[in-house]
Amino acid sequence: GIPDDAWIVDRAGRLRKGVFCCTSPFALDFSYRKAKSILAALQPESYWPDDDLRNMKTDWGKAGNCFCSRCVRMFGERAGRTYTRESLLAELDTGKAADAETRKAWCAFNAETLDAYARTFRRAADEVSPKTRLGIQAACSRFTANGDLMSRILETFAGLDGKAGIRPGGLHYTDREMRGDLLLKLVLVAREAARTGRLAACGQVCYEVENWPHIGALKSPGGMMAECALALAAGCDSLALYWGADQNGEADETYDFWLDTLAKWKPFLLSVRDAFAGTDLAGIALYHGEDSWATDGWIRHDDSVVSRLAENGLPISVTEADSEAYFLNERAVAT
User: Are 237 and 135 a contacting pair, CB within 8 Å?
Assistant: First the structure.
């Protein structure tokens, strides 16, 4: 069986079975062997570890990642201090400037341990399927607490051609919020495409179309194609569908509407991709400031105002795209 100390511990001290701790020797070995068996059997063109490599796995929007005794002890040893889960959280959550260095150090520690976890997938691919491109899911680029996590994993995942893939996604799961929700997701996607798409190790920016948790019921086929076209215009170069959640009990036929519609739209989507290849987003961007670590909003950017402005017809861009003009909010002024 799987030992308890292989699982992550959340902020409340609860063992969260189903989510591995990145510092667990058992978890690292298990993930390596599982990936190796899949890659050896399928020899896929690409392989995308998903939430395995996500920060904030159990406490969305709050300081993560794992607060087990091993992770807390390892972090304390690197920081030259002794922590408990409670004392560490106290410094992460205060929002006080005096604790900014602790937040930076904790996020750097998380990036390092997640990168070490990513190396298990690279090792497996190198041994049995070296031509397979590895890629990372990037959920919500507004999380500043990720630090350099995405760029580190891209470099680790880079294979024989020196390239890896990134798959921005998250949000907009239904057609009920077609404007605001979709526009916010596209802002996040555009940021990730602009930020990581220019890195030498990035060979693919693949948009993730999600209807989670039920693929067949939550979006219209035409709406999904419009969504895909906008994502390609925002900087993506390929598309992926969230597929095959066994717990939902959906037959393969559930996905036919997506494939049939995509086949009809493929020439248009390819022309959109080609038309926007090599271009940069134009417009006005919200400048987020230079140092958010000393504020109570250090976890993430607030992009809600950006999507609202886009709803009202303003040409919105992102700071990572070297926009023509910028506007400020209170957080930008403060940092």
Answer: no
